[in-house]
Amino acid sequence: MFHGRPYSHILERLRGAGLRPTRQRLALAKILFENGDRHISAEQLHTEALHAGIRVSLATVYNALHQFTTAGLLREIVVDSGRSYFDTNISVHHHFFHERSGYLEDIPGEIMIGNLPEAPAGTAITRVDVIVRVAA
Amino acid sequence: MFHGRPYSHILERLRGAGLRPTRQRLALAKILFENGDRHISAEQLHTEALHAGIRVSLATVYNALHQFTTAGLLREIVVDSGRSYFDTNISVHHHFFHERSGYLEDIPGEIMIGNLPEAPAGTAITRVDVIVRVAA
DNA sequence: TTCACTGCAAATGATTTGCAAAGCA
DNA sequence: TGCTTTGCAAATCATTTGCAGTGAA
Q1: Is residue A2 part of a domain?
Q2: Is the CB of A21 under 7 A from strand C?
Q3: How far apart are CA A96 and CA A118, in angstroms?
Q4: Which residue of A20, A77, A128, B110 lies most exposed, with the fewest beta carbons within 10 A?
Q5: Is the Cβ atom of A69 within 7 Å of strand C at any atom?
Q6: pLDDT tens-digit profile of A70-118?
Q7: Is residue A54 assigned to a domain?
Q8: Do B123 and A134 touch (CB under 8 A)?
């Protein structure tokens, strides 16, 4: 979208995460991070990459998604058994899940959670997920 | 556990759900509903059934779990991609998910959720899931 | 008898893995 | 050059399906 401002910011992002900026990682990161907030599956990302003329294998897409997730650039969301979504919005927020279509959508605004009990002994909370399931 | 009170209540439960009380459905329901609140996977239930001396195929276990879920006797919980848990507690409640072990546990007490926005146009909320992920 | 239910084995679909070839530092 | 990363195809894992045989009403 921005001519004359190629990959530098994405390049930084990958480098900052300790990931070598290979051709395929750069291209995938571009699709992921230059199109606003997205909820995307591995298969979808692979398809988009091929459409964009990027030669990349599905295995590499899986690798990249997991590496990005581990590096904190993505967040994995599980709502539906047998399919993972990756969210490019890594800030604290929650989701609407459309049960019929499998469509995942950010919940606008902030949700307040009260009365949350302490984590079981010897554990600490790593994340709280709220999934509001909706149907037509 | 209760001698002299064999399957009558379970039988009723299945009949009430419009499910023919076959030998395998009765046996599986017995394992599921006579041991308090449980979070169980298909594979686990199958193993337990075999241990209890019940000849039942894994396919039938899957069928039964889905039929029970559709009938409202169970609730399916997805926390972990690639594995489904079924919860015998169908009242409104939420879960701790132990990320390392995959263990799922009820959150005691009630969680208050405020500021929940309206469901997207044309949809209605079917359920709200709160999953508190914890790690050691 | 009839139609639902079950078991088996094969099919499916998402994800992972092994390993040789190719690519970045 | 040396260590990563990639691609491919095969392997895996949970789950589903097709279909012939079995069982409940």
Answers
A1: no
A2: yes
A3: 26
A4: A20
A5: no
A6: 999 999 999 988 889 999 999 999 999 999 888 999 999 899 999 899 9
A7: yes
A8: yes
